[in-house]
Amino acid sequence: MRSTKSTERDINCWICRKGVAVEESGPSSLMLFARDPGSANQILALKDLLEDEIKQKQQSLNPPMATLLKRLTKNLSISQIKFAASGPALSQLRGEGLSPENWNCVNSPERARASLSRHQVRRLITGLSDRDDHTPQLLWAAASYYGANTLALLDDTTVTHPAAVSDLNERFRLPNGSMILPDTLGVINSGSRESLIKIGIPPSNIIVLGHLHLKRFKRLAATISPEKIAKLRHYWGVGPNANVILFASEPLSEMAEFGKSRDKNELSCLRELIRRVESRDPIVVEPSKNPTVIVVRPHPREYLEKFSGMKSDQLPRVIISREGTSAEAILAADSVFGITSMLLVEAASLGRRAQSLIDFNPNSAASPK
Questions:
Q1: pLDDT tens digit string along 256-269?
Q2: Strand partners, 179
Q3: Of 8, 136, 243, 286, which sits most exposed with the smallest number of CB within 10 A?
Q4: Whole-structure pTM value
């Protein structure tokens, strides 16, 4: 367990490491960037915390997060918090009422520098993209060029899974293959911190902030009405007595061409789930409910065409649907199955039945130590 003083020292180092006196440098902005949905979740949660801190609202936070917020919001107004996004995070942030700048074309060192310079960015917070995207790394390099401070937020605890080690290394490489790190990495739990240390990231560069997204997610899920849940089940074409299994898919097939290797992917796991329903496996089928319907919820970065051979009106019925928010889909389903998707963890955080088809425990991930 690290002391509060050492955590504060690390956060102070992040704010001042390059000797940039942000408070005295004139108008500048705090830029928050995301490409992947998980990163957008963390950015949205951080946005709420930053605004509450600026408004001086009482917040229940762990010491590292409280210290970080105080440092980030010193002499900062809400209007100085800027947002940029690319890929699926663009529509996600827009859906939350924000107007992020489109950084889909930030794909070179020159464009990354121009984007930060245009907004006078002195502090940059990003997520970590999957291994097919290097935008965060390009932005870290550009920030270093200008002497700006960088913080990257991990959005889940799957970095502790053995299969994630190679992917983790790739998330800190520039397009030319060279390694680059942000000034500081904000992780969810101590296990994630240890995983980063094992791949060579200095302990002083890592702070444990907790799961920002899950707190916000549970708060929003509590506002969903029974009518919305019933409406979604109606959209799926299932009655009140149907056993709805929500399958949280992932873009593993899409990532295979970028070197992401897994023993199982989303298609093989979906086939396994269908077989288990057909054989009336009691782990997946509820005897008191009939019929069993599998609703496949694709990840925003997945191509729907790959599921064309999976759709079926036969028993078990299989439908493909992105309808509703993730919280609405979880609450409308009777159980959630998947691989390592955040949707599994979200379901577990709401006390819903969630199970991975590999050796991943969503219930532990929803209550990280």
A1: 999 888 889 999 99
A2: 173
A3: 286
A4: 0.90
